Amino acid sequence: MRFKDVFSIIGPSMIGPSSSHTAGAARLGRAARSIFGALPEFAEIVLYGSFADTYRGHGTDAAIVGGILDYIPDDPRIRDSLVTAHGAGIQIEFRTAVKPAVHPNTVTIILRGVSREDRITGSSIGGGNIEINSVNEFDVRFTTMYPTLLIFHDDRTGMIADVTRILCSSGVNIGYMDVDRKSRKGDALTVIETDEEIPDSVVQSLSALPNTHRFCTVNQRGGIA
Known about the structure:
Strand 4 (117-126) and strand 5 form a beta hairpin. Helix 2 (19-36) packs parallel to helix 4. It is built from seven helices and nine strands; from the N terminus they run ααβαααβββββαββαβ. The chain is of the alpha+beta class. The strands form two sheets. It has a five-stranded mixed beta sheet. It is globular and about 50 Å long.
């Protein structure tokens, strides 16, 4: 893996003991929370590989739930996140599973509310860094290291051109893009990482495009107070 800065090597500011098993786990939980867009009523957390073997001892369970509560990796409230989530009325279920050809530190986080369910699979790849590799069965990959926009839409001619035109006219530079679809002319998901924060006005312009269903942004900066 190519490290981007010295902090990728020495590790992030975090509640320990492990950058992979706690800091990365918290970021995976926060990414799932951002995609879902609110506190869920139910969270099903499926752990694979090393996560499955050590999640209680390394605090991975508390870290993921802390992320779902929108805590950043060095927030001391992570230690009590399971109790806090229970007090907030969130039902949480942990289980382990086997998945072939998967990174050792991988989790699927399934968040449910009254009207929606989101299923996010991602891995903690070292130094607190993460990679999301599936959202609602769309095969997309992104890191959340940059402001990230997810656009759920119909697979239609010119959709990507319309999106990039709006971003370009607003001065937002695209650093990375990934697209997947369920079927030809069916449901699709476009993921865009940008160099700048994505203004609300840009999201509003994008939401006015025909055949778009839902937008969400993922930004690992900050957290709730």
